[in-house]
Amino acid sequence: MESLRSDMYVTPGERVGEADKFEAGYGVCQINNILVATLVGTLVQEKSKGFGTKPTLKIKSAKYSEGHPLLPDIGSKVTAKVIRVTPRAASVEILVIDGKPVREVFKGTINQQDVRQTEVDKVEIYKCFALGDIVLAEVISLGDRHSYFLSTAKNELGVIHAKSKAGVVMMPVNWQEMLCPATNSKEFRKVAKES
Amino acid sequence: MGAITYGPLVRIDGEGAKTKERDVREDGRRWDELRPIYMRVGMLSTATGSGYFEGGGTKIFCAVHGPRPSASNYTIDGTMHCDVRWAQFSGREGAAGRQGDSMSEEERELSSSLQRTLASAVRLENYPKCRIDVSAFVLEDGGGGFAAVTTAASLALADAGVEMTDIMAGSTVAVIGKQLVVDPSAREEAIADGTVRVGFASQRAKVTDLMQNGEVDLEQFREAIKVCCTASAQVCGLMKECLVKKAKKWLKKRGRSEM
Amino acid sequence: MQFLSDAECEYIRNGAKDGIRSDGRAMLDIRPVTLETTVLPTASGSARVRIGKVTDILVGIKPEVAEPSQDFPDEGIISFTVECSSLASPDFVGRGGADLSAELGQLLTRLYTSPVTRELRRSLSIIKGKKCWILHIDALVLDSGGNLFGALSLAVRAALRVVILPRVIVIPGEADDDDEIEVDEEEFKMLERSRDAPIAVTLASQGDRGIYMADCTSEEESCATASITMGVSPLGKSCGAVSAGTGGIDLDTLSSMLKDAAQLGLEILDATDRFLKTDIDNRMSGAPIVPIGFFS
């Protein structure tokens, strides 16, 4: 069976091609040797990425952009808001996954040992995050039943938006300090490197 | 917003059977004829996806919420929770009705039956730690209510963008004497010797749910299942049309907003 | 529910493909069934069924005079309570057995509200619209090793076959409404129409087209992809069927499953009826009956 005509509308369960000719992409799943659509949308064929690989079939979902439903997965870059800080970990609410806002808020945890790359055992969570901070982080595991585990142990990860005690948006000074423009006081944060 | 309408009710014609005087039922249908069907998706704004199914006097709303983080245990595969309710005014006895009332035995049985049927197609392995909630509400049960719930729920899941490997539809056949009656009305259901209900996965051509009540001959039973499958396949065809229509509408809208 | 590893499932499924089961049975063979009636002296009718020395069900019937339902004034009432005791499985501790109990009870209710048992229900009527017998059938799952539906329906049927009800004398009153009844505690009668009672047969599909087995052990049940339970009346009619499992069954397989289920049902009905006939005859004639006992 050849691939169905591209830009054709498919519904879940419809056969779109054979597994030995195509790779299954987003919205396509392989059952035995058959590729089956799992979403409503149009069929898109992507050229093979290199020699010896097969072209990919994927579905352009009608209602949502690719990647929906947005679930945190290992390796996803997420934007999260700090809702609780304890000596061992910071609890956050994941608001954006890979640049797309979520429909439902997911809980995440940044553990002490995942805050930065060096001197992991000397991390003081209070000197890294404060309530209400917006943090850029990466999902490192599906975590426990309450939350996903996140990490900020990369230069470009960490706090990207924070307000000082005076309630003013602070500016980063270096990778672990931020400056309040109103009071000129400095506060500690694990600051993300601007990219 | 953005819901498609099927214009005037779509009439499905059965195949084969000649219309004879005695073949005509109370409502003028032939024995193998479905009631006019009307479907809609995406009419509820707060749900991730929604579906509406209407066949004759049977009217069903179904909403899908999620996938959302599950509050209970850590599960590698996602979980699905189904909740089927009959409205107090649905014209059916045994409905618990009001929100908060515990479900009646029957509703509970049907909920787990629906869960089974849907779980056979939904790719729950793609939704770790999440739950998908499917709630169906029968506004009016003019016969074949549960079969229609399966159909409405499939529509809602597809609309929600939940990954499924198949589209399911349900249908009912009543056995009245020697006659098989497709898609019986409530009155026909009441006088039937037995009823057969099938949940059917159209692409895999598999029966995912089977229920028989009353008394049916073995041969009739086997025949009834076949008839049910044929009827379900017809409904599936309409469901696909409905979903594609909706999809076109969405894409057009997105095309506009991206310009 | 037994938990099986993928390898164990594979083993059972591959065996099933070749028509071989781990205990040496053919696909549609059932395990040896032990059936004993009148095991509870405090119940009007009782039976205990064991399948393959694992699944173990005890059923007792308590009759009571009550008012018939308004929808069916000329019929008696048969009501079921199934209890999955925590003896049978650690899963049943607390409320764990409630779902299964409800499911089993619903199947029985479905079988016994079917038109095939209408005559049986009618024979429980005493005065139309006024008085009837209500049979409270309590079933206890003592041990579960697969095929609970089959064992349960068999035990219920056997208990119904041997249940004895006291004779009831209707004393006509002055007006039509004044009829009174008197229960004669000396004389008893058996339920004649109890032979109409159906049994349930479960066939489980193992995923492949045309591969299904009867009387599954709990291991086989836990790796079945879908199963069909069908009530079979002594006339070979289907009187209630439900499916379980999420695998789905294709049409041809389903069709032949139903046929085999009906045939198997008739065979089981025939065998148990032959046994029950001698059992009842022996009890009637006062011949000594050696009880099997609880731990045989």
From TrEMBL, chain A:
Q: Which UniProt keywords apply?
A: Cytoplasm, Exosome
Q: Which Pfam families match?
A: ECR1_N, EXOSC1
Q: Major place of localization?
A: nucleus
Identify a single GO molecular function assigned to this protein: RNA binding
Tell me a GO cellular component: cytoplasm
- Enumerate the PANTHER family for this protein: 3'-5' EXORIBONUCLEASE CSL4-RELATED, EXOSOME COMPLEX COMPONENT CSL4
Q: Where does the Exosome complex component N-terminal domain start and stop, copy by copy?
A: 10-44
Q: Where is the Exosome complex component CSL4 C-terminal domain?
A: 103-142
**Localization (cell):** Nucleus, Nucleolus
Please tell me whether the keyword Cytoplasm is annotated for this protein: yes
Task: State what protein this is by name.
Answer: Exosome complex component CSL4
- Species of provenance: Gracilariopsis chorda
**CDD domains this protein is in?**
S1_CSL4 (cd05791)
A GO biological process held by the record: RNA processing
UniProtKB/TrEMBL annotation, chain B:
Question: By its UniProt entry, which InterPro entries does this protein fall under?
Answer: ExoRNase_PH_dom1, ExoRNase_PH_dom2, ExoRNase_PH_dom2_sf, PNPase/RNase_PH_dom_sf, Ribosomal_Su5_D2-typ_SF, RNase_PH
- Where is this gene product found? Cytoplasm; Nucleus
Which Gene Ontology molecular function entries are recorded, alphabetically? RNA binding
Boundaries of every Exoribonuclease phosphorolytic domain copy: 33-163, 166-227
Pfam short name (any one): RNase_PH_C
Q: Which PANTHER family match?
A: EXOSOME COMPLEX COMPONENT (PTHR11953), EXOSOME COMPLEX COMPONENT MTR3 (PTHR11953:SF2)
What name goes with this protein?
Exosome complex component RRP41-like
Question: What organism does the record attribute this protein to?
Answer: Gracilariopsis chorda
Automatic annotation (TrEMBL), chain C:
Residue span(s) of domain Exoribonuclease phosphorolytic: 30-163, 196-259
Q: Which superkingdom heads the taxonomic lineage of this protein's source? A: Eukaryota
CDD domains cross-referenced by the UniProt entry: RNase_PH_RRP42 (cd11367)
State the GO CC annotations: cytoplasmic exosome (RNase complex); nuclear exosome (RNase complex); nucleolus
* InterPro entries reported in the protein's UniProt record: ExoRNase_PH_dom1, ExoRNase_PH_dom2, ExoRNase_PH_dom2_sf, Exosome_comp_Rrp42_subfam, PNPase/RNase_PH_dom_sf, Ribosomal_Su5_D2-typ_SF
Instruction: Tell me one GO biological process term.
Output: nuclear mRNA surveillance
A family per Pfam:
RNase_PH
> What compartments host this protein?
Cytoplasm; Nucleus, Nucleolus
- Which keywords accompany this UniProt record? Cytoplasm, Exonuclease, Exosome, Hydrolase, Nuclease
- Family to which the UniProt record says this protein belongs: Belongs to the RNase PH family.
Question: Under which name does UniProt file this protein?
Answer: Ribosomal RNA-processing protein 42
Q: Which organism is it from?
A: Gracilariopsis chorda
